[in-house]
Amino acid sequence: GVPEYVFSMFQGKFAIITPALIAGAFAERVRFKSYLVFIALWGLLVYNPLCHWVWAEDGFLYNLGAAGAIDFAGGTVVHISAGISGLVAAIYLGARRGFPNTNMPPNNMVMTMMGGGLLWVGWFGFNAGSSINSGLDTAQALTATQVAAAAGAITWMIIEGWRHGKATALGFVSGILAGLVAVTPAAGVVQPLGAMLLGVLASIICYLAIEMKNKMGYDDSLDAFGVHGVGGIVGAVFLTFFIRESWMNAAAEAAGGTWTIWQQLGIQAGAVVIALVYAGVLTWILIVIIDKLMGLRSGEQEEMQGLDSAYHGEHGYGMLHPN
C-alpha cells in the first residue's frame, strides 16, 4: 500500500547516507574528485549487493534459516559496511598530518550537539519508517529507538564520569549514536527492555573500541568504525537475545518445528562476517584502483591550507581571510 515513489525515495536516502558515513573515517585528507568517484562506485558495488542480499525477497541473507538474517533498518547493510570500509580506507590513507602529536579536538561542540539532536530525531524516520506502515510495528520501532539512544547516552556519561570524573558533551553524543546504531537492526524485533540493554552494551563496547583505536594509533577521524562498525556488530549479534517471543514463535512455525536463539545467533553472526569481509575487501580494491588512476590522498599543501579552501575556494567560517 506504499506508493513506489515513496519507497524508492526512502531507500534512496539509505543509499545516500551510507557512503557519507565512510567520509568521517578519512576526513581532511582525500581529494574531492576522487571521493566522488569512490562513493559512486562504492554505492553500486558494495551497498547495492548487500542491500539486495539482506532485504530483497530473493536475497540469500534474507532467506537464511527460518526467518533470514535480521536487519530491520540497516545495522548490517548501512553501519557495518560503512564502518569497516571507513577503517580500511583510513588505514590505507594513513593519518592526518600532525596526528597524533597535534591535538585535534572537535571543531565546534555547539554544532556537534545540534547535529546529535538532529540525528536522534531523524533516526525515528530511519528506523520507524523501515516498518513501511503506520501501525504497531512502527510504534515498537519508534519506542525501541528512543530507549536505546537514551540508554546509550546515559551509559557513556557514567563511563566518562567514572574514568575521568567528568561527563562530556562529545561523550553524550557518542553514546546517543552508539545506542542508535545498535538498535537499528533490532528496532522491529526487540522489546523496550531489550533496546535499553542494547544501548548500554553498545556504549560500553564502542567506548572500549575507541580506547583501542587510540592505543593502536590509526586515524579514524570521527570514529566511523568505533561507533558505526562496532555498534552495528553489537546490535546485529546481541539482538538475538532480546527477540520478542511472538517473533520467535513465527520463526519456529516457518521452520516447521522449533527455532532457537542459538540458531538465529549463528545466522546473525554469519551475516555480520559476510558484510565485514565483502565490504572490507571491495573497499580496499576500489581505493587501490582509484589511487592508482586518479590519486586519492590530498597533497601536503592542500591539507595544510584546508580542503575547504583548496578544493572549494571557501572557508567554513567567515572570520578567516581567504589567503
Please characterize this protein's 3D structure.
There is one protein chain. It contains 12 helices and no strands. 69% of the residues lie in helices and 0% in strands. It has 323 residues and is an all-alpha fold. The termini are far apart.
Question: Keyphrases for this structure?
Answer:
mainly alpha; single chain; 0% strand; 323 residues; 69% helix
Gist?
With 323 residues, the chain is mainly α. Helices cover 69% and strands 0% of the residues.
Task: Reconstruct the topology from this structure.
Elements: H1 4-23, H2 32-55, H3 75-93, H4 109-128, H5 136-164, H6 169-183, H7 192-216, H8 224-238, H9 245-255, H10 261-293, H11 300-305, H12 307-312
Helix pairs in contact: 1-2, 1-3, 2-3, 2-10, 3-8, 3-10, 4-5, 4-6, 5-6, 5-7, 6-7, 6-8, 7-8, 8-10
Order of helices and strands: HHHHHHHHHHHH
* Main sheet summary: none
How many helix segments? 12
Report the helical percentage.
55-70%
Mean pLDDT: 94
Termini Cα gap: 56 Å
Overall body shape: globular
> How many extended strands?
0
| Structural class determined from secondary elements | mainly alpha
Low-confidence stretches: none
Q: Per DSSP, what share of the residues sits in E-state strands of 2 or more residues?
A: under 5%
Radius of gyration: 20 Å
